[in-house]
Write a structure and sequence with these properties.
By secondary structure, the chain is α/β, with parallel strands linked by helices. The chain has nine helices and 14 strands. The strands form two sheets. Strands 5-4-3-2-1-12-13-14 form an eight-stranded mixed beta sheet. A six-stranded mixed beta sheet has the order 8-7-6-9-11-10.
C-alpha cells in the first residue's frame, strides 16, 4: 500500500494573512486533501497554545510548533526539545543589555513584559490600520498573541525567543553577537519599521522536526510538500521533496524554494494542492 501524501503548512502569511483572514479556498484545500487520504500538518513558529482558534478549527493531522522545538502527530508528542536554561538566560541578558524588546515562547503560551505587550499591540494596530481594508474578511482570527506576564515563565520550558529592534540590522547583529550555538532568522511580524527576528537552538528548526515526524510515520521525505513564506521555512524546503514559497514571500526566499505558488490572498495553498494532485479543481 503506498504511503499517504503529506503536506506541511506554515501559518502566518501562508494559511493566515497575518492576523486577519483565512481564504475560503485554503480551508477547502486542507479539508478536501485530508478527506481524500492525504495528511496535512501545521509547521509554524507559533507556540501550540498561540495557534489561532480559526486555524486549528480547520483540522490537521498534527503540528510542528515553536519553529521545530515541538511536534505532535495526532495526539502523540514526537518532538519536545526546549532550550537549555543557560541558553535562555544568555538571551535574556543579551536583550536587556542591548535594550531590545523580546518575548519568549513555551509550548503552551507566549510571555512578555508589560512594556513589550503594549509595544506589540501598538505595532499590530498600526499595521492593521494601514492594511486592514486590503482583504475582505472571510474568517475572523484572534489577532495578536495573547501574552502572559514574563515574570511567570518557567525558564526550563522556553522553546523560542522573538525580538523586535528599532534598527534594520538588529537581526544580523544578533546572529553575529550570539554565535553558532543559536539559530537566528528574520521574523515575520509586519513591523512599521526596524526589524524582528526569531531565535532557537542551532539544529532545532522546522526541517529537523519534519524529518523526525516523517521517520515516525515511515514516509519518504521525497514525497512531502512544504509550503511557507518566511525565513524559518528554509529548512522545511530543504527536507521536503518539494518546497513551495508563497507568492507573498520575499524574492530572496523564493530563490530557495523549488516552486512558487500564488499569494496568501490569492488562493496560494489551493493552487499548490491542485498542482500536486492533493485536491481536484
Amino acid at each position: 500500500m503506498p504511503a499517504p501524501r503529506i503536506a506541511f503548512l506554515d501559518v502566518d502569511g501562508t494559511i493566515l494573512d497575518h492576523g486577519r483572514t483565512i481564504a475560503d479556498s485554503t480551508v477547502a484545500a486542507i479539508r478536501s486533501a485530508r478527506a481524500a487520504g492525504a495528511l496535512v500538518y501545521l509547521a509554524t513558529g507559533r507556540a501550540a497554545g498561540d495557534i489561532d482558534p480559526a486555524v486549528a478549527a480547520i483540522g490537521f493531522d498534527g503540528a510542528i510548533t515553536n519553529g521545530g522545538a515541538y511536534a505532535m502527530s495526532g495526539d502523540a508528542t514526537i518532538v519536545a526539545d526546549p532550550m537549555p536554561r543557560d541558553a535562555v538566560e544568555t538571551l535574556i541578558a543579551y536583550f536587556e543589555r542591548r535594550g531590545i524588546l523580546f518575548f519568549l515562547q513555551t509550548n503552551d503560551a507566549v510571555y512578555a513584559s508589560p512594556r513589550v505587550q503594549v509595544a506589540v499591540s501598538d505595532y499590530m494596530r498600526a499595521w492593521l490600520g494601514t492594511h486592514g481594508d486590503a482583504v475582505e474578511p472571510q474568517t475572523a482570527p484572534q489577532g495578536p498573541p495573547r501574552f502572559r506576564d514574563l515574570a511567570e515563565i518557567d525558564l526550563d520550558a522556553v522553546a523560542k525567543a522573538v525580538f523586535l529592534g528599532d534598527a534594520t540590522d538588529t537581526v544580523d547583529r544578533a546572529a553575529s553577537d550570539l554565535g553558532e550555538r543559536f539559530h537566528v532568522v528574520p521574523g515575520s511580524m509586519p513591523l512599521p519599521g526596524g526589524s524582528n527576528g526569531e531565535i532557537g537552538m542551532r539544529g532545532t528548526n522546522k526541517g529537523s522536526a519534519i524529518a523526525t515526524v516523517l521517520a515516525h510515520l515511515g514516509i519518504d521525505p521525497a514525497g512531502a510538500i512544504g509550503i511557507g513564506d518566511s525565513w524559518n521555512d528554509v529548512e522545511m524546503f530543504a527536507v521536503c521533496g518539494v518546497g513551495i514559497a508563497m507568492g507573498n514571500a520575499s524574492d530572496d526566499l523564493k530563490l530557495l524554494a523549488d516552486e512558487v505558488t500564488t499569494s496568501v490572498r490569492d488562493d496560494g495553498i489551493w493552487n499548490a494542492f491542485v498542482r500536486h494532485g492533493l485536491v481536484t479543481p
